[in-house]
Specification:
Elements: H1 2-27, E1 31-37, H2 41-49, H3 51-55, E2 61-64, E3 72-75, E4 86-87, E5 92-96, E6 100-106, H4 112-115, E7 119-130, E8 133-141, H5 147-172
Amino acid sequence: MKSIILGLLLTATVGTAVAEVAYEAEHERVLRREVVVNATLDDVWSAWTTSEGAKRFFAPHARIEPVLGGAYEIHFSPQNPEGTRGCEGCKVHSVQPKSLLRFTWNAPPASPLRKAGLFTLVTLRFRELKPGKVSVHFEQSGWGDGPEWDALYGYFSKAWDRVLPRFVQACESGAGR
């Protein structure tokens, strides 16, 4: 009789945990965008995974090491003192060549979230639709709650809407090579 009761308690506990995880995933705030690029998968991948590629559409300076734990830094103001140049201290979280790139991303230097050392997570998924045409699915997740996070979400919603078209243009014009 004890094993039956224990089994019911275990099932109830596991079932609740699964329901809580599903609820959190369903209600998590995620910025999502998708672009289709008329370029080769190699060129599109290179634009996001090399310092030279990122400099062509993102910012005047980049330090990208596309390996697990490698740097993923984009310096919008490279002349500024360390810590105020842009995306600094960010790291590559996951890499599946020509398929997936995931890296941490921080807030602008003036944000209290940046000063607290908090990051979000950017995920890029690459899919060749046909030779010379690539879909790039963009997600930024890991948002907290509160007014600072709301402001940061709004800021990046607008910022990525500027960056992603520049990325497409650089790749399609051949500048991403």
